[in-house]
User: Fold these one by one.
Assistant:
Number 1:
Amino acid sequence: MHYNILTLFPEMVENGLNTSIIGRAVAKGILSVDAINIRDYTKEKHGHVDDAPYGGGAGMVMQAAPVCDAYEELCRRLGRRPRVLYMTPQGMVFSQSIARELAKEEDLVFLCGHYEGIDERALELIVTDSLSIGDYVLTGGELPAMVMIDCISRLIPGVLGSDLSAEIESFHDNLLEYPQYTRPEVYEGMRVPEVLLSGHHKRIEEWRRRESIRRTLERRPDLLAQANLSRKEQEYLKELLDAIPDSRQPEQGEIPE
Ligand code: ADE
């Protein structure tokens, strides 16, 4: 996967992505990260990339030309026109399933805005997808781009130590992950659940699935509608629901107290 990030702060993205698991995958050549400075494409004497908004109002707007020129030069270099993901709180909220879809691409372009946004004409010309990381407003698109790159990268074969761990994760199967324990067996008087010490793989698997279901019901009941449960697991879920007093049955999307 080749990530290309159009930004006014290339060092922010480079520094953020050159460590840990992503940095190692870049060093191994599984991923590449190319941070392209939009400022390098300005034709203005003083290197300006922004100007006051037509119609008035606070702040500055990033001009269309440097953004489009940076993208067009990248396309000429690559010999194709990759998807352009615009980082904006107005976009569709990023999710594990969007990450799975994007992980299939060969190249991705992340367009990071700053100030009061980017001239709408540049967005109309080059953006294929508008994506948000949640309903809050950040100062720029660099952190959202890094969040998405991290999430997409761990789905690419060879990036994680074991490809299995990308699958056994929160949101796999729309269930939250079961609780994990490591040594010592007793900490502050709290014991590791007996079943995990049993060496009985089938029982451990069953316990973990049940814990995932219980946790999802308690913390993210909205996810359960999409979960793929066996008949036995559906019965377990019903038992859990029956144990909740009637008036306290969680609504779809409600976070129980
Ligand atoms: N830019 C500013 N806020 C953002 C958000 N929540 N998601 C994506 N891009 C953004």
Number 2:
Amino acid sequence: MTAKGIENLLREDRLFPPTDEFTAQANAGAELYSEADEDFVGYWKRQALERITWFKEPTEGLDDSKAPFFKWFADGELNISYNCLDRHLESGGDKVAFHWVGEPGDTRDITYQELSDDVNRFANGLRSLGVEKGDRVAIYMGMVPELAVAMLACARIGAPHSVIFGGFSADSIIDRCRDAEAKMLITADGAWRRGGIVPLKDNCDEAMASTPSIEHCVVYERTKQGVPMKEDRDVWWHDLVADQSATCEPEVMAAEDLLYILYTSGTTAKPKGIMHTTGGYLTGAATTHSQVFDIKPDTDVYWCAADIGWVTGHTYIVYGPLANHTTSVMYEGTPDFPNKDRLWSIIEKYGVTILYTAPTAIRAFMKWGTEYPEMHDLSSLRLLGSVGEPINPAAWMWYYENIGGGTTPIVDTWWQTETGSIMISPLPGITTTKPGSATKALPGISAEVVDKDGVPVAPGGGGFLTMTQPWPSMLRSIYGDDERYVSTYWSQLPGRYWAGDGAKLDVDEYLWILGRIDDVMNISGHRISTMEVESALVSHPSVAESAVVGAADDLTGQAIVAFVTLMGGTESSDALNDELRKHVAKKIGPIAKPKSIIFTPDLPKTRSGKIMRRLLRDISEDRDLGDITTLANADIVAALAVQANEQRKED
Ligand code: WTA
């Protein structure tokens, strides 16, 4: 966030208290905060016992004897797919779990009974291919219901899944499958995106040439363009399930058994495999989903318009909503296909009551104009949510007025892949909101903004966001790298979880998240590390050196700006610029494509040779550069500033 943005926050004084009507019917009451303050472990244990059907109820709460390797409810036993499916069937098997909308316009309404049958058949199919409890299964699909089926089937047989976002490239599949030593890869022939086909199976074929641990690839047929199938390795989904029984005994899992790995960018080129376990994760997912979104399972139609390939989809499309017996909408494509009113037409059609989306999407809607939401009746909406990046007050107000009709509460929810579930958010019947503030930590969560010595800042101050207590849905480690887990999250300030975000505490002790303070960028709410993009760039034969920064962007929050020094004898050109951007898209995925590339004969460095990233960020955001005389190559900076200015004009 720019310095100007911070100043604006200080002036935000609009207040939105909950209405009496909302408060009267809200799931969560103010007493939860005092209950959790008194005994946070007891509070979470109560949630775990009330919200989960255990095969064996836990007697233990938090085990911190091997901190920071915390355990929650460790002597409990459960299966998460049982909690998402089986226990709902007797009374509510006919209820729709997903109103699914395909991008080309095809739709499916899938009941809990049908979802359960599909999961059981597929789970039996996985077992028939030799997948056993503890085996890692990679899943690389588009937004089809079978993606949720695959995850739940893995959970049913105790095989941890690792979902790889369908927008990632073959190289990204390789890194993740190798790190997890995945035994199986589940994919589709393709996915629809803006009318075109994302060639998922082709990407898998390319990846599987370098992932020897993968024994089988199961392919769901979606786009039907025809893909090669390798004998003995590749199996069609429909063939696999054809003769399977719709009954598959769920594996009895210990609360601390691994449920999934989800890779996320850190400050090095190697993504971190964030590990989530079963009992604590489900407790966090079900509790926050019910409290923050005020879910009424019998009447709400809930829509989390994220992709399941990110943690938001794991927790708030699959596990939280299904555990709470919710009816959800799931949409395959982009919000502007075939028209810019796609989301609003879906809301009208299904009478969606709760919408959860990201600030980048909201800013795009703003840019497109109010005519699109005005084409549809959005009066069914009663609650709106935001996630993934700081929401600027202007976008908050636009969302409130044009989508929420000036009446629905907005929950701005802060959390991370690592936290597993929402940590900081208003509770919609209780909290008075301020546009742009995620407000306060939820009951049972202890967020604190501290200075570099770990001293809590006074109201009005800013610093680093930390957590002072463990919580049930927290990550347990980084797959295969306990040391990195300790050094990344628990070593900056002893005894505290280090979120990697900057934050401000205002005079009312409301939290304002300012964004990442490390070398992780947030592009449209997606985390990408500067190092990942740099290492993709230098893998191109023409590139000698590169430095990548995230520059403030009106639409995507941050945009990737790459400064590139070419190999001697290589001339910069528009064609090379284009080629390098494509090269990064190929190496990581289209979301990591730099918005602009600035060629430079040298990068600004300190006398000890360290690249001055902060200076590059200042250049990209057109800020005053201050004193640069201590640099080894100060002359380069002025030239770069001129170039960056020209690029901005072109954009
Ligand atoms: C950012 C997404 C401001 C933050 C659930 C965090 C936010 C990173 C918010 C995690 C929010 C997420 N306000 N910033 N409401 N929500 N962030 O792991 O920088 O993809 O550290 O998890 O997104 O991104 P991740």
